[in-house]
Structures are given as C-alpha cells and as structure tokens.
Amino acid sequence: MLVRMNDELCGLMGGFFSLLAHPTRIRIFCALQHGPQTVSVLAEKSQITLPNASQHLRVMRQNGALTSEKRGQHVFYQIADPRFLQAAEMIRDALVERVQGQARRAARGTAYHKAQPPRHSMPAVTTNAGDERNSDRVLPLL
Questions:
Q1: Residue 1 lies in a domain
Q2: Angstrom distances, CA of residue 101 to CA of 98, 105, 108
C-alpha cells in the first residue's frame, strides 16, 4: 500500500527521527535489537547512569519507539515495532556502504598521488574524506 507523504506524516516522521537523533538513544535502541532488556542492563550497555537511562527510556516510550512490560519487580523495554529495527538496519547498511566507498576513493586518491607527484605548481587534487563538513563518525552498528 502506497502512502503519500503529506505535511502531517512528514511532521510525524521528523519527530520520530529527532527522537532517535540523540546518540544515547541510538545506543539504547541498538542494545534492544536482541530483545527486551531491563533499565539496569540498558544503562550498563549504554554506559550511562541508571537515572539517565530511565529518563531516555521514558521519552522513547512516550513517543512510541519503545514499549514496556512489568515482570515481577523489573520493567522490560523493547522496540515497539520490528519495522523500526528493519529501518534502522537499512539506514545502517546504507551509511556503512557510504563510509566504505569514501574510504576506497580516498585510498585510490592517496595511491595516485604517491605514484604520480604533481609536475608543476598546480594544487594537488584532494578528496573530501578529510573535510570536517563531510567527515563521517563511527556509527553504532546493530
């Protein structure tokens, strides 16, 4: 079923993406890929304090990214819809391919310059791999 992207849907998607724009929330999201986890386990895996983890989990649950279930004295959090994880994996794969492609292009450019130094005073051709505006961060892999 094809759904048109109207302003309301674009706003909803923007809110969801901004919810996951925080690096700690991405780490929590990645830690949940293997199933439900308690707040203490998620705090440890995300390398944050228990109160900080609780705060992020509350925001993620209130905005529909996660669900929670109380089992005895523990609350287990999980990703609300498996398609969220599938989307994250697709984005991860596209970003990894992009980073690998940039690295290959940079390596070819470096090898070219070592093999054939410039003959005159023209500036050397550079790739944008070192350009801070286009630099890639290491992304948490799911």
A1: no
A2: 5, 6, 11
Q: Decide if 140 contacts 89 (C-beta within 8 A).
A: no
pLDDT digits (tens, 9 = 90+) for 51-73: 999 999 999 999 999 999 999 99
Overall number of domains in the chain: 1
CA 113, CA 36: separation in Å to the nearest integer? 51
Tokens of 86: 């599938």
CATH number of the CATH domain containing 33? 1.10.10.10
Burial class (CB in 10 A: 0-12, 13-18, 19+), 138: exposed
In terms of pTM, does the model score above 0.85? no
